[in-house]
């Protein structure tokens, strides 16, 4: 399936489209490619990104990926999960060569920009794990661009172009930093790295299937035949989270789904996702989501932060 630029970009004077979407397991786009460049920022949720028939690691809040024209992709979302994203679709001419030269950005922007314009063969990893400060900044920039696109007042296109270039400079900086780090630091062999990524993938799958049970690191270590110390170290290294933090994250995502899509009472939702103490659940939910479970349910999930 090929998505044409006319499906989204109606006004060629503004060769860009930005929208906020939420997908679930019943609302997944089919495998598709498109005629434009797509920047996707993950606001919240769990999913795998399937790119050119290859599954990525699980996506999480603050992740970002870039899809160039002609590349095929879709999502895989487990049941009862959602994926909230900000989608930024634009034509290459929005960041044409003259724009890069005009602002002297040729040294600041790497293949993220030059690839679609110059048909560079080398493909960077489409998935970018953003550091927290950069993640927050890029989300803020995308929202500013969306406001400018909605108003289309004098200077809006210039602001949109400059903000997009700012995002691409940030992404290029992160990419260059990662390349420099991997070049200067000793890392594990590819075989060990792949083995650890597979382990993390299996652990995450286990957590998604057993999130409402009493799971401890000792139980997980026994299931995967490794020591508790090694499990904690490797999982934190590859995900940035502890096992407990991931369990809470999965449970809160499940709670949001049930509060939004079912008639279950808050106390029943707490029990359903694995919390025996409703007060602890409410406290955790408020800390993670920014409002109480009751308010979230009454407002049909519109209070997400």
Topology summary:
Elements: E1 2-3, E2 16-24, E3 33-34, E4 37-45, E5 47-51, E6 54-59, E7 63-67, E8 73-76, E9 82-90, H1 97-102, H2 111-118, E10 127-129, H3 132-151, H4 156-184, H5 190-210, H6 217-223, H7 228-239, H8 243-261, H9 266-272, H10 278-289, H11 293-298
Parallel strand pairs: 1-3
Antiparallel strand pairs: 2-9, 4-7, 4-9, 5-6, 5-8, 7-10
Helix pairs in contact: 3-4
Describe this structure in words.
The protein has eleven helices and ten strands. The protein is an alpha+beta fold and 305 residues long. It folds into two domains: 2-184, Jelly Rolls, CATH 2.60.120.280; 190-298, Arc Repressor Mutant, subunit A (Orthogonal Bundle). Strands 2-9-4-7-10 form a five-stranded antiparallel β-sheet, with helices on one face. A hairpin with a 2-residue loop joins strand 5 (47-51) and strand 6 (54-59). Helix 3 packs antiparallel against helix 4 (156-184). The longest helix has 29 residues, at 156-184. The chain starts with a strand and ends in a 7-residue tail after the last helix.
């Amino acid at each position: 399936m090929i998505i044409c630029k006319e499906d989204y970009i109606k006004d060629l004077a503004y060769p860009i489209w930005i929208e906020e979407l939420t997908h679930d397991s019943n609302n997944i786009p089919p495998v598709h490619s498109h005629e434009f460049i797509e920047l996707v920022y993950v606001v919240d949720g769990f999913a795998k990104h399937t790119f050119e028939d290859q599954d990525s690691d699980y996506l999480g809040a603050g992740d970002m990926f870039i899809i160039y024209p002609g590349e095929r992709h879709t999502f895989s979302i487990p049941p009862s999960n959602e994926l909230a994203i900000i989608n930024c679709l634009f034509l290459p001419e929005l960041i044409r060569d003259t724009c890069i030269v005009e602002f002297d950005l040729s040294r600041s922007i790497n293949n993220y920009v030059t690839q679609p314009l110059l048909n560079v063969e080398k493909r960077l990893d489409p998935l970018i794990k953003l550091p927290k400060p950069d993640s927050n900044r890029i989300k803020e920039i995308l929202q500013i661009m969306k406001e400018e696109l909605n108003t289309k007042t004098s200077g809006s296109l210039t602001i949109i172009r400059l903000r997009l270039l700012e995002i691409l400079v940030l992404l290029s900086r992160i990419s260059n930093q990662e390349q420099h780090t991997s070049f200067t630091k000793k890392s594990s062999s590819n075989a060990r790295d792949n083995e650890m990524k597979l382990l993390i993938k299996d652990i995450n799958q286990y957590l998604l299937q057993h999130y409402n049970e009493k799971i401890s690191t000792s139980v997980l270590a026994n299931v995967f035949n490794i020591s508790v110390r090694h499990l904690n170290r490797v999982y934190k290294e590859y995900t940035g989270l502890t096992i407990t933090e991931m369990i809470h994250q999965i449970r809160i995502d499940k709670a949001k789904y049930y509060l939004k899509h079912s008639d279950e009472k808050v106390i029943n939702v707490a029990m359903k996702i694995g919390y025996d103490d409703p007060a602890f659940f409410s406290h955790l939910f408020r800390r993670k989501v920014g409002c109480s479970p009751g308010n979230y349910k009454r407002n049909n999930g519109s209070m997400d932060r």
